[in-house]
Input
Amino acid sequence: MASEPITPLPQTVEVNYAKVKLGKALFFDPILSHDDTVSCATCHNLEEGGDDGLKFSFGIKGREGTINAPTVYNAYFNFRQFWDGRAKDLQEQAAGPIENPIEMASSFKEVVAKLRKSEYKKLFDAIYDDGITKQNITDAIAEYEKTLITPNSRFDKYLRGDSKALTQEEKEGYALFKSKGCASCHHGENIGGNLYNKFGIFNETNSEWLGRYNITHKERDKYFFKVPSLRNVARTAPYFHDGRTYDLKEAVEIMSQYQLGRHITKEEISKIVAFLKSLNGELPKNIEP
Amino acid sequence: MIEKFKQTDRTTFILFIFILFVFIMFVTGYKIKEGMSHYALQSNKITTLQLIDKELYSFTFTTNKFTNYDEIDKQENKFHQILKRVSSDLQKYNTDTSVLLKDISKNFQKKVEDLEYFKAQNSTLINSSHFLFDLQRTISDASEISLQAKNLTNETLFYILRYASSDYIDKKIIDKKLNKLKIIANNEKKQYLYTFYRHSKVMLQTLQSLKEVSQEIQINPLYQQIEMLKLHITRDYEKSLQYQTWLLNTFFFFAVFILFALILSHLESIKIKKELLAFKYAVEHSDNIVVITDIERKIIYVNETFEKATGYKAKEVLGENPRILKSDIQDENVYEELNTKLAKGEKWDGQFINKRKDGTILYEKASIVPVFIEGKLVNYIALKLDITAYIEKNKKLVQAATVFENTEEAIIIADAEGKVVSVNRAFTNIYGYMLKQIQGKNLSFLQSGAQDKYFYEDLWNQLLKNGIWKGKLVNISSAGELIPVWTTIKQITNDKGNVANYTAVQTDLRELETSQKKADYLAYHDALTELYNRTHFEEYLFHALAVARRNQTILAVLFVDLDRFKIINDTLGHDIGDEVLQGVASRLKATLRDSDFISRWGGDEFVVILENLESASDAAIVATNIIKNLAEPIKINEHSLVTTASVGIAIYPENGEDVNTLVKHADSAMYFAKETGKNNVRYYTKKLSQNIQYKLNIDMELRSALQNNEFHMVFQPQYKLSTNSIFSIEALIRWQNPTLGNVPPDKFIPVAEENGVIITLGYFVFEESCKAFKQMHQSNTQIKYIAINVSSLQFKEPNLLENFLAILKRHNVKPSEIEIEITERFVMEQTVASMSILQNFRDHGFKISIDDFGTGYSSMSYLKQLPVDTIKIDKSFVDGIAQESSDNIVIEAIIALAKTLGYTVVSEGIETEEQEDFLSKANCDLGQGYLFSKPVRCEEIMERFH
Output
């Protein structure tokens, strides 16, 4: 087992519990949106794999998004946030949807004013010297999101030495996962989430999004997206930034064609999918609103 | 002291500077340390950045090799965090690094982006290379594929791999081969070959991208910039360190310098301290009193000498003003002068007369200096020398000199050879020699020859042997007069015991010897009359009685007393009186034999001793002669005075055998003679003694009579002669004693006056009289007032008037209803003071009357000055009323005068109608006597006169 490209998730992450408590309240509170209809949890349903199961999410007043909402679970372990990696961490990410006109469509000026009139004032004043600020709101939410991790998947147990944690098929799937070249991008503790790569190396993917190009404006970055984590992948359909499929097998196949440029048999795909399912971890306890 | 203060100030200042420098050194040291740790920290971080950069750099050489990108991400993240911290830290300390930091940040950002691209391309490359190997193997094994194609794939893969690891392979060659492969693939329609072609194409592209991006990463100047940053902060640090070190060294040098200065200062202060200790020792053990005060003049220091000199302990006076020592005899001006001088900041010298704690006087010669330190007054120091002993000694010397000069005693100071050194004024007065006449001369010039040479030999022997000689000398003055002197010669020796001086003190005995003789005479003679005095009388009689006893002879003592001599003295003065006495003395001498002893007993009394009498009756002959001779008028100036005498005789052994008894009995006999009409002679008899006994009995009984209620009052009416009706009454006292029976007032009143009972008796009389008068008044008697007798002794009572007024108030009697009766004798004896007492009584409304008027010696001229309302003519005049009697004329004269002066006249003792008739005609106002009424009890008055 030495030197596996995948490493197990840590059991816990060190957090400030007061901030976590406040962040959780904010996470579930639609007060952050302009018309008090949308909360973080609206698109990141913690009971449902940390996303909303939709191709594109709906913001306030039914406004439909243009990109698939990634799961919030284990987001902490991603090296950047958003599909294009424009946020360097969770705190930066948390600010995004609040001010996004098709998501929460609010502004921090508005949010701060609303929070100051609410019971949050006391909670903030108790933790932060400067009370309610953009910085502190996003800090609290990010702190809560650090607790949204799913350790102890069967595969992690396997990695930790429990060879019975996986079935034969899953083990074979993992071997295929490595040998077919999936692991060259999907590796590390989050099985992805630690590099960008081009969506569609061998074939044109017909993506409407240009990915990182929007950030760097470099020709070479066109169609570059953050390689997503495969943790809980079985729970986070639909797949890809544009949610082009709900079927995991199809998603594996798309990957083999577009990224690897090679044919993988149906049996092989079944094995790989079996392996991918073993990546479902334990959901955290504090996910009830 | 001043030096010391300056020293202290300077030392404190230097010490302060030293501490300041040490502080600065400490701060500088701290800064160095802080700079050091800052530098070390930042340098470490920068080194870490370099290490990370190195690692990331080496990552670009791992193409086609699987790497867990978590590690790379971690490194990037770490780099980012450290750079952020370094940036914020350096912004504080190394402000001019911001451009460099910005560049670093920018280049890092670029590097990260390149690395991301590298990561993506590398992943692709890995997959492609693995797949190509697999595919090449598959193609090699595939039988349907041409050898040419197989070889081409092998070559292509070889070239691609070469291309991956080397820069010298031309990509065009590979492209050519791939184009060939593409044609074959199309021709042979083999999927494997086509796939191989595509993957190779991608891989080639990927490789090229990787090469490019690696190149980009490798030429990124990040590392150099970090190195520059490091150099920069190192340079900054070194510069700063250099500056701080210079600062530290500089201050260290100064601190050492100051420390050296401090040591010097300390050494100096030790020296000064030693000097001060010596100075302090000197002050404490000085013979001078040293007092130091603060500017408020509160004592802050005194030395031991002060304690010894004043008796105060230091702790008693600390904080006090030195004036606590001030004595009452200190001249206040001294303080004024002192304060003026000190106020000017000058030293004051002078003398104090202070007192010690025990109150004794302490003379001090004092200097007081105000102490200025740096122009500011800080202390006063008083240096004082106790000169009490010197002053006292000086005083004694002055006294001695004064005594020497002013004494009545002649004082001679001679040297060891007996030559004159000094003499005093008394010597000159006595002997008539001036000092300069006799200085250096041998004292023998004083020798008169009254003492022979043996006397002087003896004198010298005694003087040399005992050091002193006392005795009488008769010397001779310059005028040749013999001077008797009582002389004390003393030998004065010096410290070595050698004779230094002789002093002779001589008392002039001339006057003494004269006055001794005179004194001897005066001791036994009366100065006025030159008769023997009482002392001599008693001695003489003592001897005479011894002689008479031995010879069994008769001896008589005659007590001669001049009648009414007091009037002469009072009216004509003592000079006349003295001349009268001298005249009497010479007549007595002329009358008596030379052998008879005549002495003046005192005042107007003379005592004569007649010795060797044949019979007792011989004495009467002598006495009669005396009376006869004295009765002749004595002419003094224009006066012709008749001085009769009364003589009492006591006979030895018949009337007494010792001096006292005989004198007492002669005196008694003389009084008896006076009582029986004066100008006569009486022998002493037993009866006389009995009278004296009677008086003693009265004395005894009188003392308890008041308590025993033995007194009662009677009242005798005074009536208007014109209408024969009662006008007033006189209160009279009566004494009924169980053993003595009825004692008349003229017997007990004098005794009461002698033993003092008269005072209480007087109040009794006054109180009873008032009580009775009130009763009488209430029973409607027409009595206007009551006359009450008051003894002259009662007027010596301080509060008599107040007490009388109180009694009156008690009985509701007005003072105007009281007439105070005083005797004529009182008026005669008393002085201006008693007149004012009487006037006081009158002012309160009392009437005053003079009782027994005419019996004394009151001259009519007295009368008009007296504060009197009533004159009572004595019964003796009324008794003498007869046809053509001289008393008639006297009464008429008295009444006339009294009327002129506005007095009321009362006649006493009217017993016959003839008397009453005469008095009425003579215009006398009131009468009193048995004719009208005897004195009776109150009840009877009320009954008879209501």
